[in-house]
Amino acid sequence: MYDQDTYDEFRASVRRFAEEKVAPFAARVDEEARPPTEAVTASLAIGLPGLPFPERFGGQDADLFFQIIASEELSRVCASTSICTSTNWLMMLIVNHGNEEQRQAIIPQIVKGEVQCAWALTEPRGGSDLMGATTKAVRSANGWTITGTKRFITNGGWADWYVVFARTSEKGFSLFLVNKTDPGVSFGAQERKMGLRGSPTCDVIMDGVALPAERLLGTADSAGTYITDALLESRLTIGAHALGIAQGAFEEAVRYAQTRQQFGQPIARHQLVRGMIATMAATLESARAVLYRAVQLQMCGHPDAKLLASIAKVQCSNAAVSVSTEAVQVHGGYGYLKDYPVERMMRDSKVTQIWEGTNQIQQLMISKEVYAKY
């Protein structure tokens, strides 16, 4: 692990980048419901696309905490930019479980910003029930043939490469590398969402997609293990994504309260507003504490990391919703207008309680871990 000064310096650099290169486009990206291309292109200058990847592929070989910081700071000004960026980092699956040919073919492209990537796990009949997936991959003479539909895919249609979770035996699942140009791949219409409108989301449809044998990621029927491990770290990144939304909304509320005049003084001096700000601060810091603790445990390989990751996801996403809602309230009628960032932040926050395992599913996982421990 690096020392605290190194992490602090990195946070300062990403915050500066976010304020100068991301924030100016955030409202436009939301309004136009299109990918944050300006921010993604600008991020190449500070190496964000390659953040977690090994240096031999051109990456920065940064540990998990650097990824958490980056997700948090980007979400503080634009949640769509944050999720579009961090979704590419999920391709560490290729580094961890792929072969050298797969790594060399895809990872350098990600680092250079030449391609975008996505996971394709969720299906129309189930999100949390991952093992109920019906997308099938059948062995063929030259490799595999995949048929099925994936739903709510982040970066869907925009991404070039998809890691597809498919059933390969009665109880076995495998991961495959599917390219958007492969014959038989098509995409549904872009979803019209409440928030995160700058993050492309659509169905990925595979109709008899023929893949060569070398597109299998890792070993056949091993996807369950690969995904379980990857989802734990992804859950932490989503927690940071939510925390960043909460932090951004909180800062907007504090600034507004200090400048908005009512009854001859800033509303920041009114007792009830002070109480709101204090509660928001406590909610925010409590969520941050459990997230950072979970990250620390994961980086150390501690068995409690799984429990803390689920708790962090719940606490951070709940904080995002409650703090952004209160930030709108502090703004009063102005908070209901698109002219103020808190309106967008409130809309963006809601999905954090839903994706990457709903908070209700996380509660089931938390109770399971607690019962096993005690």
List keywords for this structure.
alpha+beta, Butyryl-Coa Dehydrogenase, subunit A, domain 1, Butyryl-CoA Dehydrogenase, subunit A, domain 2, 3 domains, four-stranded mixed sheet, 11 helices, 10 strands
In words, what does this structure look like?
The structure is a single chain. The protein has about 375 residues and is an alpha+beta fold. The chain folds into three domains: about 5-110, Acyl-CoA dehydrogenase/oxidase, N-terminal domain (Butyryl-Coa Dehydrogenase, subunit A, domain 1), CATH 1.10.540.10; about 115-220, Butyryl-CoA Dehydrogenase, subunit A, domain 2 (Beta Barrel); about 225-374, Butyryl-CoA Dehydrogenase, subunit A, domain 3 (Up-down Bundle), CATH 1.20.140. About 50% of the residues lie in helices and about 15% in strands. It has eleven helices and ten strands. It has helices at about 5-30, 35-40, 65-75, 80-90, 90-95, 100-110, 225-260, 270-300, 305-330, 340-350, 360-374, and strands spanning about 115-120, 135-140, 145-155, 160-165, 175-180, 185, 200-210, 215, 260, 265. Strands 1-4-5-8 form a four-stranded mixed sheet. Helix 4 (about 80-90) packs antiparallel against helix 7 (about 225-260), helix 7 (about 225-260) packs antiparallel against helix 10 (about 340-350) and helix 8 runs antiparallel to helix 9 (about 305-330). The protein is globular and about 80 Å long. The relative contact order is 0.11. The mean pLDDT is about 95.
